[in-house]
Amino acid sequence: MSSAKLFTPITLGGVELRNRIIVAPMCQYSAADGNASDWHLMHIGQFAVSGVGLIIMEATGVTPQGRISPGCLGLWSDENQAALKRVVDFCNGYGHSKMGIQLAHAGRKGSTDLPWLGGAPIPSSDERGWRTCGPSAAPYSDAFELPDALDEDGLNEIKVAYVKAAKRALEVGFDVAELHMAHGYLLHQFLSPLSNQRNDNYGGSLEGRMKFPLEVFDAVRAVWPKHKALGVRFSATDWVDNSSWDVPEATALSHELKRRGADFIDVSSGGNSPLQQIDVGPGYQTGFASEIRRETGLPTMAVGQITEPKQAEAILRSGQADMISLARGMLYNPRWAWHAAEELDAEVAYAPQYMRTNRALRGLPIPGNPPTPK
Q: How far is it, in rounded angstroms, from Cα 165 to Cα 219?
């Protein structure tokens, strides 16, 4: 029997994952009016039958203006909810993975075109675009329109939108929710002095800059059941010299999130400034996850150019993180978990429809797949 830690279970809140392989949120820019499409059914469904422990759906806007692009997922309407439920029902019926969702608001980085169409900001005067907002009237770059600085009513509307989306996510059937505070989107914009230039209670000091993101977390925690799991993805640093948002401040945020009942932290970095200078390489963000884990004791996910099974296993065994989150590696190889199990001499669930593959699949077929006909 293999002793690979990658294939041992872990419990987040009241949710047990069968292994520590996580499919990270990956924007697909393939929704219509926020509605998940056949592409999402295929994209997410392939991971659900491939033996991973948890799948986290892509950044899902809590309002139409909270999307990154017109093609991004949303969860503000009954139609959005029904379209997502179709995807999750398939995964729960045929798959073996827990299902998670990343709730998000793009803030000043919203209203951009699809990547394969150039990804440029779409002006609010264009029928496909919209007015953006942020903590301050400071654009991400000169290419973006000036965002509207959020007033008290605007802050409350967004907080309420997060709560409503979380309630919808529960009805859809998600077991895990992750709040997006990374990559320069709205909640990260409040955390960083690069984007938060307010002089009221929601700006200035670290305490002030954390105030709104923590209010959002508290509001969602109040409606998200304890038997499910609630976590946060944040950027540990802006990667900009003389920027105040860095690992010590991210650690302080982690302590506050732990005190408020966070079940895990998903540690990323960057995305809030075009001036960022990222030192990219294999596992380049793992050190951030390690420090957060050491300082707070919270379960952490490591992400960022983790591609090889033995690399992932070494990260876990050395105590740098508790889970391995893969994005681009999963796009390239949706059967990553099978191949990792083969390399690490471990067992993993597989779809019985695929049991005649020409490689040895060690483990048991996914129980209940296919579902019993009604």
A: 11
